[in-house]
Structure formats: structure tokens, C-alpha cells
Specification:
The chain is of the alpha+beta class and 351 residues long. It is built from eight helices and 20 strands. The chain is 26% helix and 26% strand. The relative contact order is 0.13. The chain binds flavin-adenine dinucleotide. Flavin-adenine dinucleotide (FAD) binds next to strand 8, strand 12 and strand 13.
């Protein structure tokens, strides 16, 4: 068997933050039949050179170092297979290398619904369970039935049911065990009910209704929701192919109700989303904006002028991980000084 091992692989164009990065080794994985053997091979080479394994998909949620001393696995398996279908639901197994947004478009074209609120999130399917991607009122865990992975320590396949994945807000068991597993397939359960749409987030209902009107429909169809999400995101978020970024840079902090009440006394216009009776989620972008940092930062890393939660790189292919750390620490300190809240980074920091 031949393996396409690449020495000194330039990842500068393989991360949406456009950070300069050279990996010691990279191995594309595009054949499901040889996947386990390929991983055992990669493991052996990595051990020989004293390197860890690292999985990289679309590179839209990572902060890479200038020199990545690792064996980088590049999952590229493709395929969408129907496992089960009835009049109401469908269960599909999707390979890790499928492009996330294109997969949602395929679903809508085939009349499979549920994922439309997650349109336009960059990246590949294999990465979606890692931080349990979410947007506009839903999380991908609402639709994941199983995750199939290869244990990188043994080269053996294992299957996780939804509950085994320990999904939470931007969290899963895979995030707790970085580079222990390579997710090869995700099994989704989707529905066929065109009335079952979720539009109770921000201005989504209004925009979706606008598309429904255009399509002469009385109420929004999942395709109207998809179009609305695309329009809202395009208006609010910078396109990484035009201005390098990795989406939301900080998680929305969740704080105790008592702390929220104190803050609300000082900042009457503080927006909030109740999590439960005891906890409240705050929009990190608002906190950064009110700390006076919208459109600011430490060059070349600045928060975006329309959405302060997004850090943008204004120096394509020369900025480094250290530039990100400098800007990140500056923002964390400014928000802490003003609100007493510690922001937590969302993207994966790779050493
Ligand atoms: C403009 C923009 C908007 C975004 N909007 C959102 C949003 O609304 N909601 C949201 O949740 N996220 C959002 N993100 C973050 C990001 O797109 C998602 O987290 C996405 O799932 C990352 O996919 P990726 O293929 O790029 O993963 P990568 O960045 O390549 O990897 C991310 C992490 O997952 C691991 N990983 C990747 N693939 C696998 C695999 N097959 N097996 C095991 N581990 C793997 C990597 O090792 C790494 O730790 C946004 C990013 C950008 C740039």
C-alpha cells in the first residue's frame, strides 16, 4: 500500500485565520477502505519522529502555530448514504470530508430538514460534533444520532451514540479528548415536515417570512429559513475568503443570576438570554463593543466593525499565533476591567 505522506506541508492557506503555519508531516485520508491502515501507518511514522497526531479539516476553528511539530491528518472521505427512511424521517450517514454548507443544500434539495439554521457555517462534516456547532436557536447535537470515529491510539473503529458524545454548549467528549479520535462519519436523523421550522431567534422570523412571501408561501418553509440565515450571516459576518477570521472568537459567557442582577444595575441595557432559573447567557460581542473595542484590537488582529465577537486578520499570511495571543489578551483584560467577566476563547489553540 502506498501512503501519500507530505513532508513540510504549508498550512497557511488551510486555516481561515490565514496564520502562517508549516506542519512537519501531513497525510490526506480519502479512502474509507484503507482508513484504519493509513492511521496505523501515520501513528508509526509519528512515533518514530516523536510527533503527536493532529486532525485538521476545514481549518475554520483553529489557531495554528508557526511551526506545527505534528503529523497532520487531513480527513477527505466523501459520501452521503441513507441508512433508514420512512414518510416522516430519514437517517443518513455522512462522511467526514463532506463540505458542511453543501451538505445542508443537498438535504434541502432532497426534502430532508432540520439543519437549515446552521447554513453557511464553514468547515467539514467531521468537525461539526467537536464543538457541537450551533447557530440561530439550534445545535447540531439535536440532529446527531451517532458519531463513528477511529481511536487514534489503537487504530480501531468505535461508535458513539448521541448521549455518549456528552454534547453541551460548544462542547463534546471530543473536545475534552483532543486528537484522541478521528471522526470518520456522522449519522444524522432529519425530518420531512416542512412546517417544523425554528425561527424564534433574533430577526430570523421576520426575514424568513420575507422569503416565504417572495415564494408565495403563507408561512416559512425550511428553504425560506435557510435563505434567511444565509442573508443574515452574509450581512453580519465577514467572509473568511475576503477577510481572514475564524468566526466567533469568544464563547458567550454564562453567569450566575445573582451576578447578572448586579451587572444589570450598572448596565441597564445589558442584553441577556436565560439559560435556566439560576444562569444567564450574555452576548460576548456586546461586552467587547461596550468595552470600546469594536473595530479595534492590536494590529494586525482587530475585532470586526460589524460584529466585535469576530477577530479579523488584516495581514494575510504573515500574522502568527503570537499576534492572536497579544490581541486576545488585550480584549480579555479590557472586558474583565469593565464587567469583571473572563471571556473564554472558542477556537482550538494548537501548540
Ligand atoms: C466565518 C465563520 C463563522 C462561523 N460560525 C460558526 C457558528 O455560527 N457556529 C459554530 O458553532 N461555529 C462557527 N464557526 C466555527 C467553525 O466553522 C466550526 O467550528 C466548524 O465546525 C469547524 O470545522 P472545520 O472543518 O473548519 O474544523 P477545523 O477548524 O479543521 O478543526 C476544528 C477542531 O476539530 C478537530 N477536528 C476537525 N475535524 C475532525 C475530525 N474529522 N475528527 C476529529 N477531530 C476533528 C480539529 O482537530 C480541531 O480541534 C465559524 C467559523 C467561521 C470562520
Amino acid at each position: 500500500m502506498t501512503h501519500r505522506l507530505i513532508l513540510d506541508y504549508d498550512l497557511s492557506h488551510h486555516n481561515t485565520m490565514a496564520l502562517s503555519c508549516m506542519a512537519r508531516y501531513a497525510l490526506p485520508l480519502d479512502d474509507a477502505k484503507t482508513l484504519c491502515d493509513d492511521i496505523i501507518f501515520a501513528n508509526n511514522v509519528a512515533k518514530e519522529h516523536g510527533l503527536p497526531l493532529f486532525v485538521l479539516s476545514g481549518g475554520s476553528n483553529v489557531i495554528l502555530p508557526s511551526k506545527l511539530h505534528a503529523m497532520v491528518l487531513l480527513p477527505k472521505l466523501i459520501g452521503i448514504d441513507i441508512i433508514n427512511e420512512n414518510d416522516n424521517d430519514i437517517t443518513v450517514q455522512v462522511a467526514c470530508g463532506e463540505h458542511w454548507h453543501t451538505f445542508i443544500q443537498t438535504c434541502l434539495n432532497r426534502g430532508w430538514y432540520g439543519l437549515e439554521n446552521l447554513a453557511l457555517i464553514p468547515g467539514l462534516v467531521g468537525a461539526c460534533p467537536i464543538q457541537n456547532i450551533g447557530a440561530y436557536g439550534i445545535q447540531v447535537s439535536d440532529f446527531i444520532e451517532k458519531v463513528i470515529a477511529i481511536d487514534l491510539t489503537s487504530g480501531k473503529q468505535c461508535t458513539f451514540d448521541n448521549t455518549d458524545c456528552h454534547f453541551d454548549y460548544r462542547h463534546s467528549i471530543f473536545k475534552d479528548n483532543p486528537n484522541r479520535y478521528l471522526i470518520s462519519h456522522v449519522i444524522f436523523k432529519l425530518h420531512k415536515n416542512t412546517d417544523k421550522v425554528i425561527t424564534n431567534y433574533g430577526d430570523l422570523a421576520q426575514v424568513a417570512q420575507h422569503f416565504a412571501n417572495q415564494n408565495a408561501r403563507p408561512t416559512p418553509h425550511p428553504i425560506d429559513v435557510f435563505n434567511a440565515v444565509v442573508q443574515i450571516r452574509q450581512a453580519k459576518l465577514p467572509d473568511p475568503t475576503v477577510l481572514a477570521n475564524c468566526g466567533s472568537f469568544f464563547q458567550n459567557p454564562i453567569i450566575p443570576m445573582q451576578d447578572f442582577i448586579h451587572l444589570k444595575e450598572k448596565f441597564a441595557d445589558l442584553p441577556s438570554y436565560p439559560v435556566n432559573d439560576d444562569l444567564v447567557k450574555l452576548p460576548a460581542g456586546w461586552l467587547i463593543d461596550k468595552a470600546g473595542l469594536k473595530g479595534k484590537g492590536i494590529f494586525p488582529i482587530l475585532t470586526h466593525q460589524n460584529q466585535a465577537l469576530v477577530l479579523t486578520n488584516h495581514a494575510p499570511y504573515v500574522a502568527t499565533q503570537q499576534d492572536i495571543k497579544t490581541a486576545q489578551d488585550f480584549i480579555i483584560m479590557a472586558v474583565h476591567d469593565k464587567f469583571g467577566i473572563n471571556l473564554v476563547r472558542e477556537p482550538v489553540w494548537v501548540d
